[in-house]
Amino acid sequence: MVRLVSGIQPRRRHDSAKPAPVPAEQRARSRELNQQRQSEIDSALLAWETYTLAKAEELSQWFDRKPRYFLDLFFQAGTRLASHHEKVNGFNAFKSMRIAEMREDGQTVQLMDVQAKLAEEWKALSEEDKLAVIEGFESSHQCVKRPTARSRIQDVSHVKRNMQALLSSLKIRVGIEGFFCIVRNNTEYNMAPSWFFTTPELEKYMDIAVRRRWDCAEIGGRLEAFAIAGCDVASMLFDLIYV
């Protein structure tokens, strides 16, 4: 007699042994150690908080700033820099708009002649009217500044500081490393290529990464030439390949 055995066999159940119960004395000792460690952490945090608040108060007296300014700067680092907005001077905005109106009416306006008169008009406005003037000035085309060589370099320097602060803050909060290079793409102003590395060791490692000497000045110059050429390899008059 032949018995046919199916290829599908029921899976055996393996009874896993339950861990032995922890003795009550051991659990109590563990709770006691955890409470003791938490108490030590709380004490350390309290000491840190006390020192930090005292230091912020000390810095506020040194630099004539509120303590909150230094606390935000320390704990939030560059997180607010991305949304930085330059505050508009209300009187300057009002003066600019009023002079523009006078000139549109055909009047010949000299700033020294109308300065005192406009100051009196500005003082007579209510806070709501002053706020409306500022908002109107910000939304008008007069807010667009005409770039100059100096203002462009200052703008780049300001943005670079923000980028450095943002990357440094991200390095502390998340754990990253990186670098960037900023070059101009036109000849309307002079600015040397600008580099930033989150750690000096990263720049040193680039010699190994590219398997030859890494020269930021040379590479930055090549990147600048490439950018000025419109980032078009075909328009370059010399070899841009970094071998």
Strand-helix topology:
Blueprint lengths: L23 H40 L3 H10 L13 H15 L6 H14 L2 H13 L9 H25 L5 E4 L11 E4 L2 H10 L6 H13 L15
Antiparallel strand pairs: 1-2
Protein model, in words:
The chain is mainly alpha-helical and 243 residues long. The protein folds into three domains: 27-83; 90-142; 149-238. The protein contains eight helices and two strands, in the order ααααααββαα. The chain has helices at residues 24-63, 67-76, 90-104, 111-124, 127-139, 149-173, 200-209, 216-228; strands spanning 179-182, 194-197. A two-stranded antiparallel sheet has the order 1-2. The longest helix has 40 residues, at 24-63. The radius of gyration is 33 Å and the shape is flat.
Number of domains: 3
Strand content: under 5%
The spatial strand order of the largest sheet comes to 1-2
- Helix count, DSSP H or I runs of 4 or more residues: 8
Region (Disordered): 1-36
Pfam families: HMG_box_2
InterPro entries: HMG_box_dom, HMG_box_dom_sf
Domain HMG box: 87-132
What attributes characterize this protein structure?
243 residues; mainly alpha; 3 domains; two-stranded antiparallel ribbon; 8 helices; flat; disordered N terminus
Structure described in brief:
InterPro entries: HMG_box_dom, HMG_box_dom_sf. Residues 87-132 form the HMG box domain. This protein is mainly α and 243 residues long.
